[in-house]
Design brief:
This protein has 366 residues and is of the alpha/beta class. It has two domains: 207 residues, 3-Layer(aba) Sandwich (Isopropylmalate Dehydrogenase), CATH 3.40.718.10; 140 residues, Isopropylmalate Dehydrogenase. It is 40% helix and 18% strand. It has 13 helices and 14 strands. Helix 1 links the parallel strand 1 and strand 2. 46% of the residues are buried. The model has no long low-confidence stretch (mean pLDDT 95).
Length: 366
């Protein structure tokens, strides 16, 4: 193997079902590594509740340094009820926010693509979700989640809670360019989502996005208020190509994708900045099914596909992984959250193994 073929992957399994879906994703990584000509060097770090239990902080410095020196990071999930009573600075989610900030991950891509075998899984009519193929481009390091001042103040019984939604022009400009560049290699349509009829910060958002659009005359741009966009995502989701929006709105809207595909467990994501990218399934830690071999690994496996396409520039391997997942579903196998498809429910491990089996036979033709 040459030095350029060595790929350093940092694994942050995290909490709840994180370790279970991460194991499945690692199995897929290892299945395609030889085909890609990669020598995988995997390291493991602690984050979230696991890090709190072991080190007393949600993001140890060692974990962040490990991420910074990797080519890509694969994260499972963070959080769980056992840490709900912790003070804000010692919540597992602080680890996730910390790694996003520490790596400068300002853009989050959340693809939502309906797979034919899962048409019956959505609570929406098949004709509504058929053909859905969209990406939510979410700004990730600004807005309410990071704005200052924030807190709870006042005498007991008369407290006030406050957060600050703040965006600077440069933050809006760079995420808008990510969305327009992505649209150029898709169907050339961007829907920018805001609440400009009420919020001043949204008025700036709309102004800057419109100005950036001048550099992309080949891409169609339209604006929607966030409430209307949420409605449109369940009424006519196939109309969307790239949805561009700020942090809080993007967090909420992208979860609607789970309704469109039939389960939030099918959704991967990629967080991008100027350094290594972080790949993470959209679902949470799902503490109610931990250790029961019920977790859906499709989102985590999809993260591996996104890693190969975005970080490693191997769209061919990404397509191979996606096709393997679709074939297993088409063969009638699914996890328990997807039984609406009419398939036979199998566990996390068996589903991943079947994807591996398909890859093993398919790579011979690559």
């Amino acid at each position: 193997m040459t030095e350029s073929s060595q790929k350093k992957i940092c694994i942050l399994a995290g909490d709840g079902i994180g370790p279970e879906v991460t194991r499945a994703a690692i199995a897929i990584l290892e299945s395609v590594a030889d085909t890609a000509g990669f020598d995988l060097q995997m390291s493991h770090g602690a984050i979230g509740g696991e890090a709190l239990d072991r080190f007393g902080v949600p993001l140890p410095d060692e974990t962040l340094q490990m991420c910074l020196t990797s080519d890509a990071i694969l994260l499972g999930a963070v959080g769980g009820p056992r840490w709900d009573s912790n003070p804000p600075e010692l919540r597992p989610e602080k680890g996730l926010l910390g790694v996003r900030k520490g790596l400068g991950l300002y853009g989050n891509l959340r693809p939502v693509r309906q797979m034919p075998a899962l048409l019956k899984c959505s609570t929406l009519k098949p004709e509504v979700v058929s053909g859905v193929d969209l990406v939510v481009v979410r700004e990730l390091t600004g807005g309410l989640y990071f704005g200052e001042p924030r807190g709870i103040s006042g005498a007991r019984g008369a407290e006030s809670g406050f957060n600050t939604m703040v965006y600077q022009r440069r933050e809006i400009d760079r995420i808008a360019r990510k969305a327009f560049e992505l649209a150029r290699i898709r169907r050339k349509r961007v829907t920018s989502v805001d609440k400009a009829n009420v919020l001043e910060v949204s008025r700036l958002w709309r102004q800057v996005v419109s100005e950036v659009h001048r550099d992309y005359p080949d891409v169609e741009l339209n604006h929607q208020y966030v409430d209307n966009c949420a409605m449109q995502m369940v009424l006519r989701p196939a109309q969307f190509d790239v949805i561009l929006t700020e942090n809080t709105f993007g967090d909420i809207l992208s979860d609607i994708g789970g309704v469109l595909t039939g389960s939030i467990g099918t959704l991967p994501s990629a967080s991008l900045g100027d350094g290594p990218a972080l790949y993470e399934p959209v679902h949470g830690s799902a503490p109610d099914i931990v250790g029961k071999n019920l977790a859906n690994p499709i989102g985590a496996i999809g993260c591996v596909a996104m890693m190969f396409e975005i970080t490693f520039g191997r769209a061919d391997i990404a397509r191979l992984i996606d096709k393997a997942v679709e074939q297993v579903l088409a063969d009638g196998y699914c996890t328990s959250d997807l039984t609406g498809s009419g398939g036979k429910p199998v566990g996390t491990t068996e589903f991943a193994s079947r994807v591996q089996d398909y890859l093993a036979s398919a790579v011979k033709g690559v």
